[in-house]
Amino acid sequence: MNNMITIRHLTKTYHTPGRQPLTVLKDVNCDIAKGEVISIIGPSGTGKSTFLRALNLLDPPTSGEIIVNGQNILQKGYPLNKLRQKMGMVFQSFNLFEHLSILDNVTLGPVKLLGIDRQQAEDEAMQMLRKVGMAEKAAAMPSQLSGGQKQRVAIARCLAMHPEIILFDEPTSALDPTMVGEVLSVMRQLASEGMTMLVVTHEMKFARDVSTRIFFMNEGIIYEDGTPDQIFEHPQREATQAFIRRIRSLKLNISGPDYDIYGMFTDIEHFCIKYALLDHFTAVQHIVEEMTATLVPATRRPLEVELDYSEYDNGVALRFTMPEGPSPLEGGQADDIAVSIVKGMSQSIKEEHTDQGLRLTFTI
Q: What is the pLDDT of residue 333?
């Protein structure tokens, strides 16, 4: 395989007066081939964004080698403008020029840095804006766009420089969850067209579905490197396994007959917004309402309600744990309409007897 980029023993240490040196990248080694789509995942603070910024020398590394198309870009005198033409970058915060129109934002680099004729630059800019679905907004100002639209323009601006590789630094992290999909769709299209991409992301489904390789970064190194199937289905190292199978949880406790159900729904809605689960909110809301207000009597307190989201398989589960006793979904005391509602809103229901009491788990 012909490597586009070879990285050897890359380190990055920050020196702050009065403090101990902080080494963020300790010994990063990898090879990147043309056409690869590599998603970089891992816990916060493990050097993922620093790695990208070191690659295009926005944050020059302390030591090591970065060989791009056979040339060590860390050698003294290597022209930065040549590197930036080869290696584009899309940031979290869009970085559009607010005083320029969308078209001018996209044409500025090709005209100023590449010396392309203005008319040619505009023609190519419109092609790139069409590619990301933003051609109709060419005359608009950035302030008139949504976050998702701004990020798509940022991608078009990067493409207008004809890069050989694009670095994406958490491109959806600053977006409203409803806008994430439009940006990921553009990135999927670029991947299908053979664009070489390195993507720092928390979008596990995107990483699993689109990537050719996954870098799991931990403790300042590439802790595990493999195909999506290897990393997500058969991770070899304990830290990788723990990260991949992590579960996000919201726990709510009802200790007596009087509780703030509206505050509970607000907490659930915020959780669903945070993890892009709004498609599940209505089902969760109905199940919680029927269980707490109708099916589980006040005598079955305390009642623990737990909403879980697995980033590994996008699974959503709603759990109710209550003191031991008969199932609230069975027997002559159960409200048939309420039981029908909760069963209709869930894919499956599992009943368990645990040390904490009776637990019902609804898979949404």
A: 65
